[in-house]
């Protein structure tokens, strides 16, 4: 026995030297050690007489440290191993953590296992009973701790013992409105800077050039101020939607009396900084003399707060005067006659797998049909964003959702490719503030479509003569994010600065 004591003391010293806490357990037998060998046969004989049942909830095995096999734990041999072999407690806790478990309840006489679990991984451990506390107090303290950390509780069952019931809290006395000195920035008093407020969610101000040869609209984009933009992610990057570029161009055209976008080519993606990483300034400039038939439009951006950095041109095009409503524009029959319904279930999971990770604001497709060379779809702007629709000509998220039906419609051979808008031609907006559209998409080339969007009454809202889409890779976006980053390399003492 003295040899065993010496071995235990040596092991304790080794663990303490490694910086680990060591505590001897007060137990009646040396479980999980060779000291149990003498009783294993007798234990196995008794266990063989028992009837085992499959567990109704998953069990993490202390023998393996993994999710237990329901068949294996219904054998006497497993429980013989359980007595003799080492306890894989830390492995079991890690297994739970890897499966997303963040809260553990210890159903036992004290909090011994809770303390050890919290030393193993970062999670909340709550003992239901404590040796030095009233049982009811300890139980409700545990429930409260779990609830405060996001665990859902069935309060009706909790209170059933006492015959209590839950009631809704009164609203008035508990409602609060908080006002902070700092927060999402807006256009503020732009008049004090000699500018004119636009009332547009993405463009805060505009100024007409004194020469009369143009107008510039400016704005500031960030996922903090325009949170819905974060729902448009491509290959893991938040990318300003192509439909939003069209919205900016049309808004600028409205300012100079040129309501039709004759063409707009997207030259470079605008990758927005992630949450808490800043913003970008954006300029939409329209050139040309007042009253000219056509006016050129360009859209540039640069990192916010980087006054010494250059501007990146993202889009360039031509604005022209509005055209009359096309003849027969209200001839859309709905629901589509002689059209084959196609499922939209799993559409956004499929897009996410391909690299287009759309959040709730952009998940607008509700139904789709295929008819010859056309795809027809119903798209809706989610309710939480509909209040903003009146501030846009056409909300970019609703406009973007109109293009998602291309995937289920199969207009392109390579449906899995990540395609983004590249070149727009003939874009006209006939009604503003739409919250839902009935859309017809028709193939007009290998990677090009035409689009018409109608409201529920059958009136034409938007039409696009041609939209060319191009594939984009993760490497292209990553390179663009690096170029437009907020950080640069400065050469101390040489006066040079490299971006």
Automatic annotation (TrEMBL):
<dbReference type="InterPro" id="IPR001227">
    <property type="entry name" value="Ac_transferase_dom_sf"/>
</dbReference>
<dbReference type="InterPro" id="IPR014043">
    <property type="entry name" value="Acyl_transferase_dom"/>
</dbReference>
<dbReference type="InterPro" id="IPR042104">
    <property type="entry name" value="PKS_dehydratase_sf"/>
</dbReference>
<dbReference type="Pfam" id="PF21089">
    <property type="entry name" value="PKS_DH_N"/>
</dbReference>
<feature type="active site" description="Proton donor; for dehydratase activity">
    <location>
        <position position="400"/>
    </location>
</feature>
<dbReference type="Pfam" id="PF14765">
    <property type="entry name" value="PS-DH"/>
</dbReference>
<keyword id="KW-0511">Multifunctional enzyme</keyword>
<dbReference type="InterPro" id="IPR050091">
    <property type="entry name" value="PKS_NRPS_Biosynth_Enz"/>
</dbReference>
<comment type="pathway">
    <text>Antibiotic biosynthesis.</text>
</comment>
<feature type="domain" description="PKS/mFAS DH">
    <location>
        <begin position="200"/>
        <end position="478"/>
    </location>
</feature>
<feature type="active site" description="Proton acceptor; for dehydratase activity">
    <location>
        <position position="232"/>
    </location>
</feature>
<dbReference type="InterPro" id="IPR020807">
    <property type="entry name" value="PKS_DH"/>
</dbReference>
<keyword id="KW-0808">Transferase</keyword>
<dbReference type="InterPro" id="IPR016035">
    <property type="entry name" value="Acyl_Trfase/lysoPLipase"/>
</dbReference>
<dbReference type="InterPro" id="IPR049552">
    <property type="entry name" value="PKS_DH_N"/>
</dbReference>
<feature type="region of interest" description="N-terminal hotdog fold">
    <location>
        <begin position="200"/>
        <end position="326"/>
    </location>
</feature>
<dbReference type="Pfam" id="PF00698">
    <property type="entry name" value="Acyl_transf_1"/>
</dbReference>
<protein>
    <submittedName>
        <fullName>Type I polyketide synthase</fullName>
    </submittedName>
</protein>
<feature type="region of interest" description="C-terminal hotdog fold">
    <location>
        <begin position="339"/>
        <end position="478"/>
    </location>
</feature>
<dbReference type="InterPro" id="IPR049900">
    <property type="entry name" value="PKS_mFAS_DH"/>
</dbReference>
<dbReference type="InterPro" id="IPR049551">
    <property type="entry name" value="PKS_DH_C"/>
</dbReference>
